Amino acid sequence: MTLLSQDLSRERIPVAVPDELAARVRALRRARREAQTRASRVRRVLLAPTASRDADAHVSKNHR
Q1: CA-to-CA distance for 50 and 48, rounded, in angstroms?
Q2: Where is the composition biased (Basic and acidic residues) (predicted)?
Q3: pLDDT over threshold 60, residue 54
Q4: d(CA 30, CA 26)
Q5: 21 Cβ partners below 8 Å, 6+ apart?
Q6: Model confidence at 42, in pLDDT bands (50, 70, 90)?
């Protein structure tokens, strides 16, 4: 556990790493956004109303 009184300056990221870190952050954000998009699509499909077989049979008889 880190206390407020502790010196955090020794844990800072070296100056040469920010580009690599920024690329990793972008990749993680993109992956999270894509996962959220996939999850919302799956929810939409799973929650979409479906017609029962009886309703399909009734509709097909009327269209003859």
Answers
A1: 6
A2: 53-64
A3: yes
A4: 6
A5: 13
A6: very high
DSSP per-residue string spanning 1-39: ---TTS--GGGSPPTTSHHHHHHHHHHHHHHHHHHHHHH
pTM over 0.85: no
Separation of first and last alpha carbons in the chain: 74
How far is residue 55 from each of residues 17, 26, 51, 59, 61, measured CA to CA in Å?
62, 48, 6, 6, 10
Contact of 2 with 8, CB cutoff 8 Å: yes
- What's the longest Cα–Cα distance across the chain? 81
pLDDT at 55 over 60: no
Q: Say yes or no to pLDDT of 64 above 70.
A: no
